[in-house]
Amino acid sequence: MEQKVVAFESDEIDWGGSGAEEGGIVKKSKSLSMNVHSGLPDPLTGPVKCSLVKGDYLYFHYGCDGQDDRGWGCGYRTIQTVASWLCRNWFPLQGKHRPPPSLPEIQQALVTMGDKPASFSCSREWIGTFEASLVLDYFYDVPCKLVHVRGGGAELEHIAVEELHQHFEKHGSPVMMGGDRDNSSKGILGVCSGDRGSYLLVVDPHYYGCQLEQQELQKRGWVAWKRVSSLDQSSFYNLCMPQTAKKGT
């Protein structure tokens, strides 16, 4: 599929009301960038194995809906990026309109499921890969595989890299990644490995500001190939992988 960057009008997304929480929605983004990794060269030359996201997705980041969630909303934004892929590419949703859930909707869903107390709604509490698996199943009826990777280069290079290769080849969806010491949520859009090590294609939700074009996001490093060895070697990492392959494939 040819990758491209297109505008996505904000009036196509139901952001879940007026944003009653403190510092609520003040201005909606006019557009969201699509397929922001398109055009990035592979990080390695020579014999390499690269596995990438398949299909269209939107890039969600701090404040993209007008709600200032800096410092706590990265997990929510990564969920929204994954959800945007499901809206467009997962076969049970074809012909249906279920836009990515807003931050208030995500919080209320976790309360409704009993995972969080009522006080969690309208809070600024973080969420991670476990909550992401619950939310994606709640809104899209898609199961998720959770993979725990202990800290250390060998674990990341072998377990995480191989799991990601298998995921992108079979399922093709973005993956959510988070950890303990490295507790900044990130989206993973691909993996590339060769004799000189491995790289992850990371889309970072921590950008805050006006909407940027694809090339500017790449230039500033908000979507980039990151060497696996550059990750925090003392942190464990969890991967949330939507299981979207059709039965029998």
Task: Describe how the helices and strands are arranged.
Blueprint: E1 48-52, H1 74-89, H2 103-112, H3 129-140, E2 144-149, H4 153-170, E3 175-179, E4 186-194, E5 197-203, H5 214-219, E6 223-227, E7 237-242
Antiparallel strand pairs: 1-4, 2-7, 3-4, 3-7, 4-5, 5-6
GO molecular function: deUFMylase activity
Domain UFSP1/2/DUB catalytic: 49-240
Protein name: Ufm1-specific protease 1
Commentary on this structure:
The protein has 249 residues and is an alpha+beta fold. The protein has a single domain (10-38, 48-242), classed as Cathepsin B, Chain A (Alpha-Beta Complex), CATH 3.90.70.130. It is built from 5 helices and 7 strands; from the N terminus they run E-H-H-H-E-H-E-E-E-H-E-E. The chain has helices at residues 74-89, 103-112, 129-140, 153-170, 214-219, and strands spanning 48-52, 144-149, 175-179, 186-194, 197-203, 223-227, 237-242. Strands 1, 2, 3, 4, 5, 6 and 7 form a 7-stranded antiparallel β-sheet that branches. The two termini are 20 Å apart. It comes from Collichthys lucidus.
Entry summary:
The chain has 249 residues and is an alpha+beta fold.
What is the β-strand count? 7
Domain module tally: 1
CATH architecture: Alpha-Beta Complex
Strand content: 15-25%
The top-level CATH class is Alpha Beta
Helix content: 10-25%
* Computed Rg: 17 Å
CATH fold call: Cathepsin B, Chain A
- What is the N-to-C succession of helices and strands? EHHHEHEEEHEE
The largest pleated sheet is described as: 7 strands, antiparallel
Question: How far apart, in Å, are the first and last alpha carbons?
Answer: 20 Å
Overall geometry comes to: globular
| Helix-strand category | alpha+beta
State mean pLDDT (0 to 100 scale): 85
Distinct helical segment count = 5
Low-confidence stretches are 1-27
